[in-house]
Amino acid sequence: AQARASKAAQLGFKPIVGSNADAVVLPPGYTYDVLIRWGESLTSKVPDLDASKLDAGALLQPNAAEYQRQQFGTNSDAIHFFPLNGRSDHGVLCVNNEYTEDSLMFPGHPGLRGLRGGRSRAYVQEHPQVVPVAKAAQGVSVVEIKRERGRWRFVKDSRFNRRVTADTPIDIGGPARGAELMRTKDDPRGERALGTFANCAGGETPWGTYLTAEENIQDYFAKLDQLEARKDVDPFIIEAHRRWRMWKAQSLYNWDIADPRFDLATTPTEPFRFGWIVEIDPLDPTSTPIKRTALGRFAHEGASPVIAGNGRIAVYMGDDDKFEYVYKFISTNRFDPRNRAANRSLLDQGTLHVARFDASGKGEWLPLVFDPKGPLNAAAGFRNQADVLIKARMAAYLLGATPMDRPEDVEANPTTGRIYIACTRNENRTVEAGTTTYGGREIDTSPNAANPRSANNFGHIIEITEAGDDHTALEFSWEVFLLAGDPSGGRLITHLGEVKSDSAYYAGYANAADLSPMGSPDNVGFDRAGNLWIVTDGSQPHGGNDGCWVAPTVGPNRGRLQQFMSGPVGSEVCGCQFSPDDETLFISIQHPGAGGSTAEPRSHWPDGGSSQPRSSVIAIRKEGGGVVGS
Ligand code: FEO
Ligand code: CA
Ligand code: CA
Ligand code: CA
User: Fold this and answer.
1) At what angle do helices 119-126 and 130-137 cross, to 10 degrees?
2) pLDDT at 192 > cutoff 90
3) Residue 554 Cα, ligand 4 centroid: separation in angstroms?
């Protein structure tokens, strides 16, 4: 631990300052390769997307969806690297493709994400062929990559290359497999779903498989109003969809126009087949991915498995919505490092828990277990364990879990075992104590010990230490590691206008002049030395672009947060995955140019000139080699 701690102190790069440039900005001595862009074909059987023709309607053409099914997906998010033959310069990359930025894909499409007008529905009605394209552009891209003569590239036509889309058959595993709520007309046994989408962060298992997290699935399902009007529908189904804040007459993406699976009035139980963690074997391109229902159903941001001292697997997870919860799954059985196949069922048996953070600085993991004599019984809407997992958010609420400020990525520090939870922000956290109905339940929205700021515009990070440093423990202690904002207490720009910050806190690090302002921590990652790397989604204290920051978590520089990278205009920075030798940092540049259109792009990254912006994965390296951050 001593050697590791001293290595953690070796962050030697010169921090950058926040930037509005339409560029990837890095410290002196660093460079990056654009590893793969949205639309680059994984096989020579289909052409690359010609982005210069987007404004002319390239994606409205009859072959667009067929091509997209074999091209790299859009809006890359989580990244995980699976080495081939133990190498750091050759491996298989799994990348989430979270959602479509329709304004940048379909000309004349007014449907910016979050713009809830009726015109975008009219556009999809007129051009229903955009739905299969959007479905093919999401999910997961699996691609072989190599570093040659210093530069990273992807390997076209590799046997590992694969797309998993919103239409790929996926098995349902675990306690909800076959459950009544999981059955549909097309799948009367409730055993095989079609597709994965809204894939946000992710994780990798100790046995070398990829975990992809289904997050904002509610934005794809329409017509809750019609379902609510029906008398023949189990009221628990309607209540469950309200808890997820499903859409009434139309959804954000309007997929129901082209696919009845997304019409709640036609297929009321289809949403129960989404909102899960999906396991994919990147080394077996013919394998069927599996939804691991024992890990619960909520807006999963990621899933971070850890091997506990006793060989059981703990998986830490966040539910990214305002006032949602932090979860931990503990497997029943033990990891077997000598038998990869035997580990494939580890995530099907175990107990899901949810966190309650107490003001004392202690906390407890509360089991989500069906019990006729406990709070999770038939009177509360749970007939069996499958119901508890499918409606995990309701179960967590009934157990008294602590409502958090959008808990996103949750990850364990590989050197200390401590857990870090990124809470992006929550501007709805009230100034005064009070309750409100949010997501179909009444909750206390006033600040609590683990979410201490009202109108939390810039987010924070919580650090958990499990009792006895045991990942299967049900008690823990916790502290606020970081309250994001401007450490010098200057005036900050938020969506509400200028506010004064007097509450930024960086693990007690004393010298504010050393620190970089940061807001909206989203995904986190660790290098082998245990430094905490953070990428952001939204609101920065001085209005700069999203980027990447790093802070040691131990030693005299604990909490010394410094900015390492800034992303292009309109982009969100995601991923944050190191190669095994720490010499490459893989980052996703998601939705560059968001807020613009194909006719009027706000960004021309990565190709410059007058080109269309394209989400891409980049590989950041030190010029001449060396550990990233040194
Ligand atoms: Fe997809 Fe929680 O960000
Ligand atoms: Ca995210
Ligand atoms: Ca992560
Ligand atoms: Ca995000």
Assistant:
1) 100
2) yes
3) 27
Taking the centre of ligand 3 as the mean of its atom positions, its distance from the CA of residue 200, in whole angstroms, is 10
Q: What is the pLDDT of residues 255-302, one digit of tens each?
A: 999 999 999 999 999 999 999 999 999 999 999 999 999 999 999 999
Pairing of strands 312-318, 304-307: antiparallel
Q: Which residue has the higher pLDDT, 332 or 126?
A: 332
Q: Is residue 623 helix, strand or coil?
A: coil
Q: How far is CA 123 from CA 11, 255, 256, 383, 503, in A?
A: 50, 12, 13, 42, 45
Pick 7 or 348 by higher pLDDT. Answer: 348
CB atoms within 10 A of CB 437: 9
- Are residues 313 and 347 in contact, defined by beta-carbon separation less than 8 angstroms? yes
Ligand 1 atom nearest 77 alpha carbon: 1
Compute the 3-state secondary structure of the chain and give helix, strand, coil in percent, each to the nearest 5.
Answer: 15, 30, 50
Ligand 1 — pocket residues by CB below 6 A? Answer: 98, 200, 215, 301, 320, 408, 537
Q: In terms of pLDDT, which residue wins out, 604 or 492?
A: 604
Decide: helix, strand or coil at residue 497.
Answer: strand
Q: Tell me, in angstroms, the distance from the centre of ligand 3 to residue 420's CA.
A: 10
Q: Which residue's C-alpha comes closest to atom 3 of ligand 1? A: 200
| Residues near ligand 2 ion, CB 5 Å cutoff | 200, 522
φ and ψ of 249, to 5 deg: -70, -40
The helix/strand count (H/E) of the chain reads as 9, 35
Total residue count of the chain as it appears in this document: 630
Kindly give the number of the ligand 1 atom that is closest to the alpha carbon of 215: 1
Atom of ligand 1 nearest to the CA of 301: 2
Range scoring the smallest mean pLDDT among 121-125, 164-168, 461-465: 121-125
Q: What is the pLDDT of residue 109?
A: 67
CA 275 to ligand 4 center in whole angstroms: 16
DSSP letter at 68? H
**Atom nearest to 537 CA in ligand 1:** 3
- Please state whether 507 falls in left (phi above 0), alpha (psi between -120 and 50) or beta: left
Structure tokens given for 574: 């995601």
Note the CATH architecture for domain 2-38+73-99+138-215+275-622: 6 Propeller (2.120)
Dihedral of alpha carbons 45, 48, 50, 56, sign: positive
pLDDT of 544 strictly over 80: yes
Ranges of each domain in the chain: 2-38+73-99+138-215+275-622
**Which atom, in ligand 1's list, is nearest to the CA of 201?**
1
Q: Quick one: pLDDT band at residue 457, thresholds 50, 70, 90?
A: confident
Cα(485) to ligand 4 centroid in Å equals 18
- Phi/psi for 118 (5° steps) reads -85, -10
pLDDT score recorded for residue 419: 98
Which of the pair, 107 or 578, is modelled with greater confidence? Answer: 578
| Main-chain dihedrals φ then ψ at residue 280, nearest 5 degrees | -125, 135
Non-local (6+) Cβ contacts of 391 within 8 A are 236, 240, 243, 297, 381, 382
Which H or E element spans position 480? strand 475-483
The 10s digit of each residue's pLDDT in 398-433 is: 999 999 999 999 999 999 999 999 999 998 888 667
Tell me, in angstroms, the distance from the centre of ligand 2 to residue 203's CA.
13
Per-residue pLDDT of 12-47, as tens digits, reads 999 999 999 999 999 999 999 999 999 999 999 999
